[in-house]
């Protein structure tokens, strides 16, 4: 089975040291499709610095877009993303994704992991920019017929367990129409990675790596990562800094230590330096019933991975194991303080053993996971 892959708003790059999750997400989807038995054709803007992994067939998206129906591709996978024209400049490699979606004669599948990235039409943006691109940049313009997606047969494969709510996002006027939707647990992506060499004696008690999600996680970050006593060290890394937080909301709570961003492919290694992590979400994650990839990354890193109980009301992560559930679901900062102190009293290595117990509880099967995605696509063609 041949599957074409494109990503909305960004390149699919291997070997790049970026600090975003989007590129890693795209790499993992490609990996799953290939390990699941598909012949994967990646269409993206190719740069000289890129590592063209021989597992895939590579196509420079702008000059080769017209070949999509000449390669006997059975289905196209579109990975969610945010469309940006940085500096207002034209970017044909971004716009042409929509032309490919329009012109491909086979079925199209939209991989919907991020609740903020429903499949939005690009034409309203391009229509406004066309005159500027033509006058200022002497660039080509695009017609509505080329890039306004009129097909209504896109099938959505979403990370959300609340597929009804996820489907409702596509009913808005400016979004691409869908013909069906089904859940797939993309939150387990991190388990495809090699387990890192663990630091047996962590250097920090509690850590968080990520972003503010446009301020949407401010409250939860304050609730679970601020205000700890002197005997518990807390670190926040990623694109977060002290002045991102409203001083009135923080009050006199003690800030964590901020250590800056790390490349995406070093995230798990960085997390492995901590004893524990608290998985948090935001309102969108709760409505969509989505589990964060960070849960799996933290456990893979050997962290004792607490989960804000309001994020996982259905106990998907630790349900069925009463010992793990009673230890790892937390309702507030006080729960975390109590349990970290308990773990430290248990001695070196206790936290790593708990993380290993979680991995055994999940009983992840790599082959079944990858094959399952390909089979889901076949079933809905």
Q: What is the compact description of this entry?
A:
The chain has 381 residues and is of the alpha/beta class.
Properties at a glance:
single chain; 381 residues; alpha/beta; Rossmann fold; 2 domains; seven-stranded parallel sheet; 15 helices; 17% strand
Rounded mean pLDDT is: 92
What's the CATH topology name of the largest domain?
A: Rossmann fold
CATH architecture annotation of the largest domain: 3-Layer(aba) Sandwich
By DSSP (H or I, 4+ residues per run), the number of helices equals 15
- Count all strands and give the number: 13
Largest sheet: 7 strands, parallel
Structural category is alpha/beta
Fourth-level CATH superfamily of the largest domain? Glycogen Phosphorylase B
What would CATH call the class of the largest domain? Alpha Beta
How widely separated are the two ends?
Answer: 12 Å
What is the overall silhouette? globular
Order of strands in the sheet with most strands: 3-2-1-4-5-6-7
Total separate domains: 2
How much of the sequence lies in strands comes to 15-25%
- Low-pLDDT stretches are none
The H/E string reads: EHEEHEHEHHEHEEHEHEHEHHEHEHHH
The helix content, as a percent range, equals: 25-40%
CA-atom Rg in angstroms: 22 Å
């Amino acid at each position: 089975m041949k599957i074409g892959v494109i990503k909305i708003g960004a390149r699919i790059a291997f070997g790049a040291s970026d600090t975003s999750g989007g590129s890693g997400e795209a790499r993992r989807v490609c990996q799953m499709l290939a390990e699941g038995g598909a012949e994967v054709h990646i269409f993206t803007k190719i740069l000289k610095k890129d590592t063209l992994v021989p597992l895939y067939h590579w196509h420079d998206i702008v000059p080769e877009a017209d070949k999509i129906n000449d390669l006997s591709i059975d289905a196209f996978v579109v990975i969610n993303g945010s469309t940006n024209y940085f500096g207002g400049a034209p970017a044909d490699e971004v716009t042409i994704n929509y032309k490919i979606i329009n012109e491909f004669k086979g079925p199209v599948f939209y991989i919907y992991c991020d609740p903020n990235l429903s499949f939005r039409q690009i034409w309203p943006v391009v229509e406004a920019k066309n005159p500027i691109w033509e006058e200022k940049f002497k660039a080509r313009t695009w017609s509505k017929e080329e890039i306004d997606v009129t097909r209504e047969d896109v099938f959505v494969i979403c990370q959300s367990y609340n597929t009804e709510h996820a489907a409702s996002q596509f009913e808005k006027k400016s979004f691409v129409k869908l013909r069906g939707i089904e859940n797939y647990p993309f939150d387990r992506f991190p388990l495809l990675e090699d387990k890192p060499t663990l630091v047996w004696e962590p250097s920090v008690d509690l850590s968080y790596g990520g972003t503010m999600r446009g301020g949407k996680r401010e409250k939860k970050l304050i609730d679970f990562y601020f205000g700890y006593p002197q005997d518990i060290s807390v670190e926040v890394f990623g694109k977060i800094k002290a002045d991102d937080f409203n001083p009135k909301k923080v009050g006199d709570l003690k800030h964590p230590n901020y250590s800056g961003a790390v490349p995406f492919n070093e995230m798990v290694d960085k997390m492995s330096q901590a004893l524990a992590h608290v998985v948090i979400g935001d309102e969108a994650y709760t409505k969509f019933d989505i589990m964060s990839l960070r849960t799996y990354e933290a456990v893979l890193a050997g962290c004792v991975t607490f989960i804000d109980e309001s994020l996982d009301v259905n106990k998907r992560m630790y349900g069925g194991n009463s010992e793990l559930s009673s230890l790892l679901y937390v309702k507030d900062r006080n729960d975390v303080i109590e349990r970290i102190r308990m773990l430290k009293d248990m001695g070196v290595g206790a936290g790593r053993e708990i993380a290993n117990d979680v991995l055994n509880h999940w009983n992840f099967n790599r082959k079944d996971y990858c094959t399952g995605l390909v089979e889901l696509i076949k079933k809905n063609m």
